[in-house]
Amino acid sequence: MMDFMSRLPLAQSAVDYDVARRGEEGLIEHLLDDAATRVMLVHNGLVAVPKRVGAHAPEALDCAADPAAPRPDAEPPTGAMGLALLAARDLRDAARQPGCLVIYLGVDRACSPEVPYLALDITRAFDTRLQGGAGADSELDAYRPPLFQRLLAAHDWVELRSFAPCASVRDAGLATSAVAVSMWHSNQRFCPACGSPVRPALAGWAQTCANPEDTERLLFPRIEPAIITSIIDEHDRILLQHNTAWRDRFFSVSAGFVEAGESLEHAVRREAMEEVGIPLGEVHYLGSQAWPFPSSIMLGFTARAVSDEIHVDHEEVSDARWFTRVELARTVAAGELELPGRASIARHMIEDWYGARLG
Ligand SMILES: [Zn+2]
Are residues 205 and 147 part of one domain? Predict the structure, then answer.
């Protein structure tokens, strides 16, 4: 399992979360003044990487599509891409603008001196509803769009699923936390209990309700658990399915959301029965992966099929087949079947069964 997890992007962090400091008064201001602090940038769920000459589109940075990427049987291209990490002092003005969210991601204790990391989320810096709001400084207001336009233009902006498989463990972990927390703030603007506006708390990891009558209500991100299962039969074949919502030729393993009041093991068995009509025997936990698109966590299992007779539901799943290792390698190589992306736990579960990288 350790080997499985050590290769899984979006599932780990080399940085100490330093949770104990999150409630510290003036922490963000203090860290913005600290010469050691490094800041990564987030905008609309994308993370900033150093601009590459002649490569402006995020697609150009997808190592899976890069002809220079290592061969499929080589080691994962970890560290091929890195975050743009800026000095905190250069971003103090930007971080103080209305709509900007600063998240304290933790501290790298392996460095000397230790390096604190912040994420600056500029998604709402362009929100016109915040222009001229109560207490806003008109000079800073006028300054705001050019400042953020410069930040946008100075970097390439990449999607986490393209970035993480090519990044170091540290950068993949920082980016995953930053995107997950940022997406939550973007999607939850009001208190779910009373409908009042909310403001960031605990160094960005929580919100407090601004309603005095609902005061001190602390809100934390709601994470939606989803199970994902590699189903293996008695001949050591893997079951891959095609969902009706997926593009042609795309196949993956069984997955679905955990229902309220349900155990993970029950969800694993229920999804397999609902989607492909397969009763399961032994179920073993493999590992988990944050999947902040926008707020899931994938809980990976492998399970033994009691029967190999497939009955797809034709609603969610239109096709499902058993594959031997030889069949899967041949079908993927022939382009007849497309597997989940390299950042996904699904891909790692399939390759874990296969015993090597595929495609
Ligand atoms: Zn409230």
Answer: no
Distance between Cα 209 and ligand 1 center (Å): 5
pLDDT, tens digit, for every residue of 254-305?
Answer: 999 999 999 999 999 999 999 999 999 999 999 999 988 888 999 999 999 9
- Flag the least confident range among 27-41, 71-85, 307-321: 71-85
The chain-wide mean pLDDT, for the chain, equals 87
Q: Classify residue 53: in a domain, yes or no.
A: yes
- The whole domain housing 131 covers 2-186
pLDDT single digits (tens) 224-247: 999 999 999 999 999 999 999 999
Q: For residue 203, which phi and psi values (nearest 5 degrees)?
A: 55, 35
Q: Judge if 70 and 52 occupy the same domain.
A: yes
- Dihedral of alpha carbons 26, 31, 34, 39, sign: negative
Closest alpha carbon to 41 in 161, 169, 162, 178 = 178
Cα(5)–Cα(314) distance, rounded to whole angstroms?
33
175 shares its domain with 198? no
Question: Could you say which DSSP state residue 15 is in?
Answer: S
Give the distance (Å) from ligand 1 centre to CA of residue 214.
Answer: 5
What distance in angstroms lies between residue 206's CA and the mean position of ligand 1's atoms? Answer: 13
CA 94 – ligand 1 centroid, Å: 28
The Cβ of residue 302 has, within 10 Å, a number of other Cβ atoms equal to 21
* Residue 222 CA, ligand 1 centroid: distance in Å: 16
User: If you measure from the C-alpha of residue 201 to the centroid of ligand 1, how many angstroms do you get, rounded to a whole number?
Assistant: 14
Work out the pLDDT band at 77, boundaries 50, 70, 90. Answer: low
Q: Give the distance (Å) from ligand 1 centre to CA of residue 211.
A: 6
**Do 149 and 71 share a structural domain?**
yes
Rounded to the nearest whole angstrom, what is the distance from the C-alpha of residue 221 to the centroid of ligand 1?
A: 15
CA 212 to centroid of ligand 1, rounded, Å: 8
Of 129, 158, 186, the residue at which a domain comes to its end is 186
